[in-house]
Amino acid sequence: MKLTRAISLTNFFVASSALGFQVFVLYPWHKELDAEFEKLKTEHLKVLNRAGDSLSEQQQKAMAEELNELKNKSSRSSFPFVNRAPNPSEAISAAKDKFLPTKDKLMATATSENLTSVSLYARYALAGAFCCSFTHAVLTPVDVVKTRIQLDPITYSSSLSKSARYIVSAEGPGALLTGLGPTIAGYCLQGAFKFGGYEYFKARAVDYLGQSTASNHRNAVYLGSAAAAEFLGDIALCPFESVRIRLVSQPSYATDSVSALAKLAREEGIGGLYSGLSPILLKQIPYTMATFLVYEKAIQTAYSVIDKRELPSIGVTGINLGAGLIAGLAAAVVSQPADTMLSKINKEKAGSGEGTTRRLFRIASELGLRGAYTGMQARAVMVSGMTAVQFGIYGDIKKLFGATDGVELSQSHVVEEDSEREYA
After folding, report:
1. Is residue 257 part of a domain?
2. Which of 71, 142, 377, 397 could form a disulfide with 127 if both were Cys (CB 3.0 to 4.6 A apart)?
3. Among candidates 402, 415, 420, which has minimal Cα distance to 121?
4. Number of domains forming the structure of the chain
C-alpha cells in the first residue's frame, strides 16, 4: 500500500513537474517562437513581392484581390459554417497556385513536400522519442516489480509494496533500476516511430481518402495509423526489450546492458533478439491502437464541451493529461495478456525444436485467463501514469521542436464540406 501511494505520488510529481516546465520554461520559448514567426511572415511577404514584380499589372491586381478575399474570410469568425480561418501557409499556397508560373509552382511544391515529409515528421519523432524514453525511464522500478510478479508469482506476491520490499532486501535498491539502459534506448526508438509514424500515416490517409471521407471513418484512420506506426516501432524495440527482460529475470546474466545485448546476440543470434517479436506485436499494437483511439475520443469529447481557443496553455496540458490517463487505463486492460506472455517467452531459451508459435500456444494454455492478468495492478498504475504524462507533455515538446499540430479529424470537417456544397 505504501509503495502504491509512493508510485501515485511519483506520478503526481512527474505530472506537476511537466506542468511547471510548460509554464515557466516553454511559455517564454513560445513567445520567442511567435517573434520568429513574425519574421518568417515578413520574409514570405518579400517573396510574394518579388513574385509580383514578374507579373503583369492585371495579374498583380488579381493577386491583391485574392489575398484581400482570404483576409476577409479569416475575419468572418461569426459565419455559422466556418470553423477555422485559413492559416498563413494556406493563404500563401492559394495565391501561389493561382498566380505563380508553372515552373516556380512545381519548385515551391517540391520544397513544401520535402519539408513536410522530412522536417515536420522528424520533429514529431524527436518529441515522441523524448516522451516515451523519459516516462519509461521514470517508471523502471514499477516495471521491474511487474515483470518479477509475472515471471514468478509464487515468490513475489501480487502486492506491489511487498514485492518491492522483497527485491530490495534480497538484492539491494539498485535492483529496482535493472534494465534502465535498454529501456531508455528501446523506447527512444519506439517512441520516434510511434508518434512520428502515427502523424505521418494519419496525414497520408487523409491525402488518400480526402478530408470528408477520412472524417467519416476517423476511427478506422486512427486505428490503422496507430497499428502501422507501432509495427515499425516494435521492430526497433524488440531487441532491447528482450535484453531488459533477460536482465530482470536473470540479474547475473550480464554486468551491463551492452554486454547483455552482445551476449544474447552471440549465444542465440538474431532469433534470440527477436524471440519476443510475436508477443510484443500482440501486446504493443493493440495497446497503441487503444491508446490513440481512446485519447482522440476523450480529447474530442472534452473540446465539444470546452472551447479550446479560450483555454490557457496550462488548461490544454491538463486536458491532455486527463485524456492520456483514460487512454492508458484502457490500453493496459487490452494488452495485459500479451504483456505477460512476452515476459514468459523472454525469460529463457526455447526448447529443442520448439518454434515461437508453439511456445505461444503452450504459454497461453499454461497461464489461462487468470494467469494472463497476473501483475495487472502494477501495470495499470505504470501504464496509466506513463501515458498521461506522455500525452501531457507531447504537445509542448513538439512545439518546442518547431512542429505544428497534426491532422485533426472531427465531424466538424464533414459539416463544413456539406455546407459548402449546399451554398455552391
Report:
1. yes
2. 397
3. 402
4. 1
pLDDT at site 382: 78
Determine the structural domain holding residue 340 and report its residue range. 124-423
The amino acid occupying position 320 is: N
Contacts of 186 (CB under 8 A, 6+ apart): 236, 237, 239, 240, 241, 244
Domain membership flag for residue 137 = yes
What is the domain-level CATH number for residue 316? 1.50.40.10
**Residue 309: exposed, middle, or buried by beta-carbon count in 10 A (0-12, 13-18, 19+)?**
exposed
CA distance 338 to 341: 5
| pLDDT band of 227, cuts 50, 70, 90 | very high
| pLDDT single digits (tens) 157-216 | 767 788 888 999 988 988 899 889 999 999 999 999 999 999 999 989 998 988 889 889
94, part of any domain: no
Name the pTM for this structure.
Answer: 0.63
Residues contacting 7, CB < 8 A, separation 6+: 142, 160, 381, 382, 385
- Contact between 145 and 175 under an 8 Å Cβ cutoff? The reply is no
| 89 inside domain | no
User: Per-residue pLDDT tens for 326-359?
Assistant: 999 998 888 888 888 777 776 656 566 666 677 7
Cell output for 285: 499494437
What does the H/E/C string look like for the chain? CHHHHHHHHHHHHHHHHHHHHHHHHHHHHHHHHHHHHHHHHHHHHHHHHHHHHCCCHHHHHHHHHHHHHHHHHHHCCCCCCCCCCCCHHHHHHHHHHHHCCHHHHHHHHHHHHHHHHHHHHHHHHHHHHHHHHHHHHHCHHHHHHHHHHHHCCCCCCCCHHHHHHHHHHHHCHHHHHCCHHHHHHHHHHHHHHHHHHHHHHHHHHHHHHCHHHHHHCHHHHHHHHHHHHHHHHHHHHHHHHHHHHHHHHCCCCCCCHHHHHHHHHHHHHHHHHCCCHHHHHHHHHHHHHHHHHHHHHHHHHHHHHCCHHHCCHHHHHHHHHHHHHHHHHHHHHHHHHHHHHHHHHCCCCCCCCCCHHHHHHHHHHHHHHHHHCCCHHHHHHHHHHHHHHHHHHHHHHHHHCCCCCCCCCCHHHHHHHHHHHHHC
